[in-house]
Amino acid sequence: MIQHKYTNSLIKEKSPYLLQHAHNPVNWHPWGDEPFKIAKEKNIPVLVSIGYATCHWCHVMENESFEDPVLAVVLNKSFVSIKVDREERPDVDSIYMQAVQALGQQGGWPLNVFLTPEGIPFYGGTYFPPKRRQNTPSFLEVLQFLIKTWANEQDKVEKQTKVLMDYIREACTRKPSSTEPYELDFSGEDKSVEQFEKHYDPLNHGFQFHPQNKFPPSMGLSLLLRHYKRTGHANSLTITENTLKAMKFGGIYDQVGGGLSRYSTDYKWLVPHFEKMLYDNALFGTALIETYQVSGKKEFSDFANDLFQYIDRDMTSQEGAFFSAEDADSEGIEGKFYVWTQEEVEKILGRKTSSVAIPYYNITPKGNFDGKNILNITRGPKTIAKELGMQEVTVINELQIARDKLLEIRSQRIRPLLDDKILTSWNALMISAMAKTGRVMEDADRTQKAARAMKFILTHLRTSEGKLFRRYRDGEARYDGYLCDYTATAIACMDLYEATYESHYIETARDLMQRVEDKFCNENGTFHETANDGEELLVRQVSGYDGVEPSGNSNAALAFLRLSAYLAEPKMFLKAEKIFLSFSDELMEFGLNSAFMLQALHLYLGGLKEVAVVGKRNDPATQKMLDTLRKGFYPIAVFAFAYEDEIENVGKRIPLLKDRKLVNGKVTAYFCRQGTCLTPVNSVEELLKLLSYE
What we know:
Distance between the termini: 69 Å
Strand order of the largest sheet: 1-3-2-4-5
Oligomer: single chain
Largest sheet: 5 strands, mixed
Structural class: alpha+beta
Number of domains: 4
Number of strands: 19
CATH topology of the largest domain: Glycosyltransferase
CATH architecture of the largest domain: Alpha/alpha barrel
Radius of gyration: 26 Å
Helix content: 40-55%
CATH class of the largest domain: Mainly Alpha
Number of helices: 26
């Protein structure tokens, strides 16, 4: 058993990130009332340091500063120090991130913010080096400056807290909108598409939004698909296809084991920041399967299946829920687990297989990452076969042998840390991706895996009263669920419904959104990020920003729209409308920051077409119509289905199906828009006409 010189209060926590810091000499506290009480008693400031378990620069700062006994003496004497896992507490993280950005700094992690004993920020930043670097002070210099300021210049502190609180309140709240419903249109989507095209990288694909890095733009790509479907604008589809392929074949994607890394550190998608996050892979999977639906190109469904195989193998718990992330580092070195030398590849694969794998994966003696190789693909098997004078089928077979062998050998290496906590909203995103894929590909196993994960969430992260928790680990469900948890889970339930047509999913989605109305509603028609009976923080935030995952309000808008159709409830439609109106300025002018809410608005503006199908069992015509609904990409429609012998019972649960009957003794599709229905149709051809953009 390892003997540790230091142990602090974090040792009692479940978060892998907090446990990483449990043996620092810094006297860390978890977030709660106790550390602020101590700070008030001693009249000293509070350091809140925020990060997550797979954060590379969090590890760096820990090694450089938080494990330094000399620096720890300074912190323990003059500050009360709190560690926060941003993934468990996105509410705390978001508030103090706003403060740091108000100070003119770029946000990121680790986030280090200094507060008064009342929890009000007055200074902060991200990573601080152990020694001064150009204009960046060392962490010790920062601490010494703040100690002096706190002791001698309280007026400066008070002035700064007022400025920052004014900014936070402004950034975290919503003002009533003057926009009228008739003013909502597709102009925001069109402007966003123009911006995507403006920033598109035609050489390497993806978008040049950042000075150097490229982040997976999956929600934006899904928006481009909807724009293509509506307008026929071919470039929207081309950009989407090219970007997805560039990511899939680049170093950002793990060519051996599957899975997408957090971002690429270059424009070529070559050198990733090696950590893998569940939400990135979920959104990537959704974009892939939607692109398959639109393009009909099997390579995109194959890409999705490869991604999900990684999730099945490395990111799924024994109970079927999905883990949060994998670290970038192993043995203290970023990317060590994933890279190869040409020599070891030749040794592992042998002469014949390596002769194919080395050119295919662009492996060289020099390497492309600190003398080693990040595997990436720039030429297909056909090109490699031509270069080597081999049959293409032989090349494909050898590449499969190569991948299997490399994966086998790599599995013997020391793995990066697995952050094995279960997060509700992130699981919901993956459930949605798998449910959509299962439906489109008629893959019962994929659908079953999505259903199993949902069962875990509803069993272990939901109380009998319907309350959700944010995080599950080691048998403990903790932290009240946030808006994103409820709304993403509701959407995942509806995606599972359309994959299975099991009506209980709609009932669950209804109950979840009812709790959203009861606990999160704002007087302006938007929704707070936290519940009204939760912990009281500096502010209750309202946000529509679609960052690394859809915002809670974006999810809420989509969930209310879809539920309004299933439940024949116009009031829910109006709730979604109020969200769009409240965020109309952002949607119409700055839609790049609201790519998911624009997807929801697309459904709203498209007319929300409600399709209820009733058919006979073992009927080829019924199956044909279901296959059409299953495979097709219809982003402005909601579908419900039941067999004629169950319609009476199911109709009680899903009003969209109530009183539906076969017409002419054939499978029948009822087509409605906001309660107004057209003459039922019996053929796929007639239904497809109704599903067009009109």
